[in-house]
Amino acid sequence: MLHIIMPVKDSIESTEQALHALTASELSEDYLVRVYNDNSTVENTQRLEALCRELGVEHILLSSLTDTPSPNYLFVLRREQHLCVAEQADLLIVESDVIVRPDTLQGLVSGARRQADCGLAAAVTVDDAGKINYPYEYAARYNGDVADCPRHLSFCCTLLTQRLLRSFDFGELDDRKSWFDVTISHASRRLGFKNMLFVSLPVVHHPHQSRPWKLLKKQNPLLYYWRKWTCGLDKI
Description:
Layout: E1 2-8, H1 12-23, E2 31-37, H2 42-55, E3 58-61, H3 73-87, E4 90-94, E5 98-99, H4 104-114, E6 118-126, E7 146-148, E8 157-160, H5 162-167, H6 181-190, E9 194-205, H7 216-219, H8 221-231
Parallel strand pairs: 1-2, 1-4, 2-3, 6-9
Antiparallel strand pairs: 4-8, 5-9, 6-8, 7-9
Helix pairs in contact: 1-2
């Protein structure tokens, strides 16, 4: 069993592309898709509801489950860990700014299951021209189809295996943070798992569509870090 989730915060155009690609995936096992709507605008929520209904996926309004302001990644991760462990499912996260190929998700699932000690399995990200881009620029020097990655994996398009979900309690994650890919990646390796980066399964990534201010990290680093520190944003 496979749980596929897509966290969404507005960015409806990129979400439409991402969700159409995701639901066209060629998967050989039982799976479900949940879209977690993290306080999008009323207009975008209506569009997202119609899209999910059209594609036959579950649309979850986080505002109906928690009153914590966006981002609610931690709430989603803890909820999904509970559901996945109960249903003996792996968890696959696909961000709303990522376009998968039809064979991407099955490739990650099959690749992770061939590696008995895999904790995380991630697809490398590329731009529209096929060049490896953020956050995996360092992977351009890797040889081969897959690498045991010593660095942390992003959750752009990443499988969290049932082994890892049973071994590391997300209740231990720091409530003061916003993002948890670094923490979970390090926990996976600390517990003796391998974090696999699949260079052979590229996905198109249009970074930070839902939070465009994060583009400042490269465009204007001083302004980015000023906003990060003064506004308490982007806590990793």
